Amino acid sequence: MRRATFAAVLLASGLALAQGFPSKTVRLVSGVSPGSASDTIARILAEKLQASLGQPVIVENKLGAGGLIAAQQVARGDADGHVISIYTSAYTVAPLLNPSMLRTDELTPVAALAMTPTTLVVRPGTFKTVQELVAYAKANPGKLVATSAGIGSSTHMNLERFRIASGIQVLHVPMKGAPDALTEVLGGRADMYFALTFQIASYVREGKLVALAMGSPKRSALLPDVPTTVEAGYPDSDYNFWVGALVSAKTPRDLVQRLHREFTNAMNLPEVRDQILKLGADPLTMSQAEFEAMIRREFEENARLIKAADIKAN
User: Fold this and answer.
1) Rounded to whole angstroms, what are the CA distances from 219 to 28, 47, 123, 162, 248?
2) Given phi > 0 = left and psi -120 to 50 = alpha, else beta, which region is 168?
3) Is the pLDDT of residue 136 over 50?
């Protein structure tokens, strides 16, 4: 009886929070630098959410530890919906590598927002197809140098999925971020890199890089003629780089559902979808339950990949 009464109090409290939300400024906390894809998406949505919520919506950048500093602030802050994490698929990797900083159960998924394609790029005059690269790597184990934006980054995880799926060995050199990783390939000091497509599309069009395959689950409108690594014949080689909204796991479910509706309504606005497409990203909307299921599945898949590739945190 006492347990039922307590549950009823929690339910009533959650309903009251949802009905009274928002009562102050809403903060979208981004763990990346201004100008990056996920940060730009946060700023696009902030304008629309402010109009629908009737309260100021601002973007805050809290850099460090692969987004974990920003995620910590949301996970361990007030669970009243006013502090929201705008995180990427790094969320399904970072807590596995750094469980002391964030547990996998400290955030609750609210809404998927976008999927950002990745592309396997090389220098001109090296390889014309992904099959050529794989054949060379198998004949010369460990000779190819592959960069990434850092240990556990999506560009690193994409590389490892492809490496295991294709059965090759490469020398992985993690950098401090995407610009450094790209510079190493452009400068001839590295051979390959799974780059975010919007960052390298102009280099491909100018002939400074060759796009061998998309590392993402589907092709990109920025490079529509480039096949995916799966289409090229390497099953389970793709990696899903997404952007989404999450809140503290202590947030009442009614408020989570309210936030899901607000984000989904904003994402369905034609002007928002157009802006996201211009970033080279694809709008990604699904139910809150589907987003939760996707994240659970990715935690399981990435745990296996981390073990198989023997990935260790910095």
Assistant:
1) 29, 29, 21, 16, 33
2) beta
3) yes
pLDDT, average across residues 288-314: 94
First vs last C-alpha separation in the chain: 50
Burial class (CB in 10 A: 0-12, 13-18, 19+), 90: buried
Instruction: Please determine, for residue 12, whether its predicted confidence score (pLDDT) is greater than 60.
Output: no
Which tokens hold the place of 73? 């602030």
Using alpha carbons only, how large is the chain's radius of gyration in Å? 20
Distance CA 119, CA 192 (A): 10
Q: How confident is the model at residue 9 (pLDDT cuts 50, 70, 90)?
A: very low
Is 0.85 topped by the overall pTM? yes
What is the C-alpha to C-alpha distance for residues 293 and 84, in angstroms, rounded to an integer?
Answer: 20
Distance CA 257, CA 210 (A): 44
- What pLDDT is attached to residue 32? 84
The per-residue b/e assignment along 60-84, b for 16 or more CB within 10 angstroms, e otherwise, is eebeebbbbebbbbbbebebbbbbb
Domains of the chain: 23-116+241-309 (3.40.190.150), 118-214 (3.40.190.10)
205: CB partners within 8 A, 6+ apart: none
- Residue 280 has φ and ψ, to the nearest 5°, of 85, 10
Task: Give the pair of three-digit tokens for residue 63.
Answer: 């850099």
